[in-house]
Structure formats: C-alpha cells, structure tokens
Amino acid sequence: MRGSSCHGDWCYSFVLYNDIAQGVLLCRDYCSDNEKAMVPRASHMTAFLGDAPEQGLLAPSEEDPPRQTPMLEDCEMSRCPGQAQTLPGLDQSPLMQTHLLSGPLVQTQTLRDFEKHLNDLKKENFSLKLRIYFLEERMQQKYEASREDVYKRNIELKVEVESLKRELQEKQQVLDKTWVAAESLTNRNEAELRRQYEERQQESEHVYELLENKVQLLQEEARLAKSEAEKTAALAEVEKERCQELTEKLKEISRKEEEARKAQVLLDNYCAALAQKNKTIEELTQNLSAKEQLIELLSTEKQNLLQRLEEPKEMEVQLGHCTPG
C-alpha cells in the first residue's frame, strides 16, 4: 500500500511537470517571434477573433507559419523510447550520485540531458511570461478606450490560464516519470527518496496553490473587465442618446434663430419704410405749413385789394352827396 501510494504521488507530480512543459511549447507555437514584441500567430488569433483586426500588432502573416523550436525538438528527443527521464537535480544528490556511478554512462547522460532540457524549458517559460506580460501591457495601453481591447484582453487571459494549466500538468508528468525512474534504480534508501519526494510534493503543492491563485485572479480580472466593458457600453449608449437630444435641440435652436433673423430683417425693413414714411409726412407737413402761410398772405393781400377797391367807390359816393342838385 505504501509503494502504491508513493507511485501515485510521483505520477501526479510527473503529470504536473509534463503539462508545464507542454504549456511552454503551446505558448511558443501560439506566438511568433518579433524584434519588439511577441505577436500571436494569425491562425490561432483568427480562431478567437473571427476576423482580422486592422491594427498591425495582430495582423496575420503568411510568412510566419507555426514551427517547432530547438527547445521543442530537444524535448521530443528526450521523450524517445528507451531513454529514462528523472527529476531535475536528482543526479546531484548524494544518493543519486551513488546510483549513477554504479549505473551505465548512458543513464547518467540521460539524466543530465533531461535536467538541461528542463532548465531550458524553465528559462524559455520565464521569457515567454515576460513577453506575454509586456504584450498585454502594450495592448492595454494602446486599446484601453475601446471595447475590442477588452475582448482581446479576455482572450489573452484565457490563453494564459490554459498555459498555466498545461504547465501544472507538465510538472505532474515529470514527477510521475521521476518516480518510475527512481523506483527502477533501487529501493535501498527509501527513506531518503521519500523525503525528497515529500519535498517535491510540497513544492508541487505550493506551485499548484500559486497557479490556482493566479487562475482565480485572472478570472476575477476577466470578470471585472467584462463588467467594466458592459458599464462602458451602457454609458456610451446614454451619451449617444444625449448627443441625439442635443442635436435635435441644436437644430431647433438653429431653426428659431433663422426665423428670428428673418423676422429681424422684416422688422428692419418695416422700420426703414416707417422712417421713410415719417420723413415724407414731415416734408408734407412742412409743405402744408408753407402753403398755409402762403394762403394767409394771399388772404391778407386780397383784403387789402378789396379795401383799396372799396375806397374809390366810397369817395364817389361822398362826392355825389356833396355835388348840388
């Protein structure tokens, strides 16, 4: 029962490490190398987005097909049948050095090659994580104000979650294969191996806990990003309605201003006509006053003439009275 339990735990750890390595290779195959940033390949990104974006960052490229890296080829060579794979650093312990000195030279070389491959995978995994981080930061700065950036960010988060899951499975597979290799070598120092296994198991549990927390944080970040996108969309809809209302009001104000301008023109024309009429009335009034004065003058002259005409008649009458019969 003890050997079966140990074998199950080692298998679980080996699957964990194996999935980690496969996650690294999946990220490498998913993204193509660029001088400044790690650009997602068009074949994978098109499957997520459905159509090609207009920006150059995610533009599809026919000259960048999926390819295997030297790290992938080395990893595949290390998985060939007939080669034993053990835990990284296992050949450096005093116990494993005793077994390796007593074992064949090929087995020692295999352990060292596997350790070298695993170290290279870890370095490449760290490099890919840095590239993913800077790519996400760059995309967030460049497309922060758009809804499309939220969806792209969500896709990148999902890809990172899947990569972390693959990383966890890879580590578990490495632990399982290490247990098989250690069990085939010897059982003389089971206590020492058990101690090393428990340390590896604790390390894997710690890594699993960290990855689980990272996954939860990423899921929460994706949920918040989705909620923020929905709020932004709602605010955009409200702003759109307000813009439409303001446009209608502006059109109404423009129409009223046009009517007021026309009314002002009519009023100005009316005032000008009224001023002209007032001027005409004033001129006519002046003419009328002049004619009235002329009439008064003529009337006065007429009275004078009548008086002058009456005077001879009166003189004749007076002369007639004075002449004797």
From TrEMBL:
Ranges in a coiled coil: 111-308
InterPro entries, per database record: CDK5RAP2, Cnn_1N
Ligase in keyword set: no
Annotated Centrosomin N-terminal motif domain residues: 110-179
A GO biological process held by the record: chromosome segregation
Pfam families per record: Cnn_1N (PF07989)
A GO molecular-function annotation: gamma-tubulin binding
Keywords: Coiled coil, Cytoplasm
Protein name, per record: Centrosomin N-terminal motif 1 domain-containing protein
GO CC field: cytoplasm; microtubule plus-end; mitotic spindle pole; pericentriolar material
Intracellular or extracellular location(s): Cytoplasm
